[in-house]
Hints:
The structure is a single chain. The chain is mainly beta. It has one domain: Neuraminidase (6 Propeller), CATH 2.120.10. Helix content is 12%, strand content 41%. The protein contains 5 helices and 26 strands. The strands form 7 sheets. A 4-stranded antiparallel sheet has the order 1-26-25-24. It has a 4-stranded antiparallel sheet with strand order 2-3-4-5, with no helix packed on it. Strand 21 and strand 22 (334-340) form a beta hairpin. The chain is globular, with a radius of gyration of 21 Å. It starts with a helix and ends in a 6-residue tail after the last helix.
Amino acid sequence: xxxxxxxxxxxxxxxxxxxxxxxxxxxxxxxxxxxxxxxxxxxxxxxxxxxxxxxxxxxxxxxxxxxxxxxxxxxxxxxxxxxxxxxxxxxxxxxxxxxxxxxxxxxxxxxxxxxxxxxxxxxxxxxxxxxxxxxxxxxxxxxxxxxxxxxxxxxxxxxxxxxxxxxxxxxxxxxxxxxxxxxxxxxxxxxxxxxxxxxxxxxxxxxxxxxxxxxxxxxxxxxxxxxxxxxxxxxxxxxxxxxxxxxxxxxxxxxxxxxxxxxxxxxxxxxxxxxxxxxxxxxxxxxxxxxxxxxxxxxxxxxxxxxxxxxxxxxxxxxxxxxxxxxxxxxxxxxxxxxxxxxxxxxxxxxxxxxxxxxxxxxxxxxxxxxxxxxxxxxxxxxxxxxxxxxxxxxxxxxxxxxxxxxx
Length: 408
């Protein structure tokens, strides 16, 4: 081994946070010029060749129009610019939303999304595609497989019924219903109608499950796909152990407000789900699984504020955890990064990607990855006043996060 290689190896061994020794780095750009069209809910992956592939949903608004489709764009490793946009999925006459991309250890690209059947989230149909030919310089992947991902919840009514009694006692005046997080209905009225007529109904249990965050690949070879439903404001995992053919579902994560889970794995094998809060707690929700996602402990609360907006957490190559979230209880005008070097016990470093006065911008729904060169990449919805909507990409390193926010 050459002397200079030995020096590099020694430096790496002595400093497990090798990337932290680098100079702080940050760079960002919009994927396309701002426009009045609604662009939201992006997902980002690094392809095996080092290029980036991103997608998001685009249209007039999925709750009122059927022109919503999923667009994509690419960025070559050494390029400063993204390609022209292209269509990733478009079901004629229906909104397509909430795309999720993932490249597995075998080099296959997974693409999950929902088709909204009746302009209500609880009518969403979950779909997925797989590609082994997706590293084109421009345009969409070539798809090898497409199917509907059928969700069959386990012990659904029983778990919801038990947790509902706890929720009623703690928040007697705040009762969820499907078209908005909370309403003025009395608890008994809601329970009689909803829990008996909806939670026990097979169709209501099986329809409306949605994607939002990257899945997690486990050392055992299982792929765990985090899902949630606005119909009940809870989460659930879809798990495959054979690479697409057979899926099973976890027991539900019931907290009545905990949605859009993001998964990380601790060194001891415990899975941790960080979730958006869609209810009264105003805090990021959390739950733990010690059996690879099949069952979950109680849904608790973290220290981090949440205004009802998506979060994502990842484990970096050096073992540190990174969390990206809106650090407010109202509004999405502040988008923050928090870094932990002890698997989430403490979060010692924080830095904002975006921060403006309320009403001056909305920055939300992050997609977070680390590329093989050690850089951290994020895409997120970038909405400015005057209907100026785009998707933004930022790349940075750990050293930049550790510097903290510059003086204002």
